[in-house]
């Protein structure tokens, strides 16, 4: 039986929807994953098999073919474990309504006992799911708040494969995650440090205030211990607060890099980057490109 589920692959800070086609038939006894998977994806069948057997599900012993389409795009990472597992359950009749599976993007890394681990890039995946009019997004609990920042998309956080199967079989109700926008607004002014902490240094403080107000560049030159890093680190506290659109763009970058703080839905404050003074020119240029993406002051 052929069943199709949907996952998503992240390239840069954008996501591409991937169709996970699972076919189970009696033409052999081998497992195959095609569609340019990397080694992490090829190994997923071992994790999936252990997770299914640990939770009393049936793992077929006949030919199993998984195709990740479009097949000419390289796929990486372990986030397809859950979509592959659900596709196998649908193809073997262990999920009652295979059509319901196709209404959701399903992503998550599986542990051998069926627990679902967090993934990278949840926000770009959620944005793409909304763009393509999917009914919802099923992903690990740790990523739910981040993905729920996308309006008009049902985001279901799960912690175990049993929860996903019960939800798709209509035997368990999972409420979509709701993120309070007021939390985003309140956290914008919640800095651990503040520009007001700086005592003296009136000339440089005046220069940085002008740079922040006009959106100008600033270069700080001086001997070690003069306070350059201390002042620069506090500069974001006097910059204009991020708009929601800017916050989403910043969060996308952090999400893809796996740098979202735990239990945080969105990056609400302007980031500060402090490369070491021994950094090479090549790495510094890469940092500058990334920094330019972060530095959204207008």
Tags for this model:
298 residues, 9 strands, elongated, Ribosomal Protein S5, domain 2, disordered C terminus, 3 domains, 3-stranded parallel β-sheet, alpha/beta
General description of the model:
- This protein is an alpha/beta fold.
- The protein folds into 3 domains: 2-179, Ribosomal Protein S5, domain 2, CATH 3.30.230; 190-239, no CATH class; 241-298, no CATH class.
- 37% of the residues lie in helices and 17% in strands.
- It contains 12 helices and 9 strands.
- The protein has helices at residues 39-42, 44-54, 81-91, 98-101, 122-131, 141-147, 161-168, 181-187, 202-214, 228-234, 244-257, 281-294, and strands at residues 2-11, 14-25, 31-34, 63-69, 104-106, 109-110, 116-117, 136-140, 154-158.
- Strands 1-2-4-3 form a 4-stranded mixed sheet. Strands 5-8-9 form a 3-stranded parallel sheet, with helices on both faces.
- A hairpin with a 2-residue loop joins strand 1 and strand 2.
- The longest helix has 14 residues, at 244-257.
- The protein is elongated.
- The termini are far apart.
- Residues 291-298 have low confidence and may be disordered.
């Amino acid at each position: 039986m052929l069943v199709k589920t949907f996952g998503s692959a992240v390239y840069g800070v954008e996501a591409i929807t991937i169709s996970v086609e699972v076919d189970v038939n009696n033409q052999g006894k081998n497992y195959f994953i095609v569609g340019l998977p990397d080694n992490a994806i090829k190994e997923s069948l071992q994790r999936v098999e252990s997770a299914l057997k640990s939770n009393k599900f049936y793992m077929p012993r006949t030919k199993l073919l998984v195709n990740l389409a479009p097949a000419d795009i390289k796929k990486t990472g372990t986030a397809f474990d859950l979509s592959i597992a659900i596709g196998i359950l649908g193809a073997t009749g262990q999920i009652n309504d295979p059509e319901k599976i196709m209404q959701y993007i399903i992503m998550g890394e599986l542990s051998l006992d069926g627990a679902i681990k967090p993934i990278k890039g949840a926000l770009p995946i959620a944005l793409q799911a909304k763009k393509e009019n999917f009914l919802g997004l099923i992903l690990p609990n740790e990523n739910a708040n981040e993905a729920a920042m996308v309006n008009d998309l049902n985001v279901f956080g799960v912690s175990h494969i049993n929860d996903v199967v019960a939800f798709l079989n209509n035997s368990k109700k999972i409420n979509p995650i709701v993120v309070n926008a007021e939390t985003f607004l309140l956290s914008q002014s919640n800095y651990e440090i503040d520009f007001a902490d700086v005592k003296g240094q009136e000339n440089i403080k005046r220069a940085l205030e002008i740079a922040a107000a006009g959106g100008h560049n600033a270069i700080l030159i001086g001997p070690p211990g003069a306070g350059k890093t201390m002042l620069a680190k506090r500069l974001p506290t006097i910059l204009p607060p991020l708009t929601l659109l800017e916050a989403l763009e910043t969060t996308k970058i952090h999400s893809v890099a796996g740098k979202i703080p735990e239990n945080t839905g969105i990056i609400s404050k302007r980031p500060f980057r402090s490369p070491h003074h021994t950094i090479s020119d090549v790495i510094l240029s890469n940092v500058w490109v990334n920094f330019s993406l972060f530095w959204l002051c207008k």
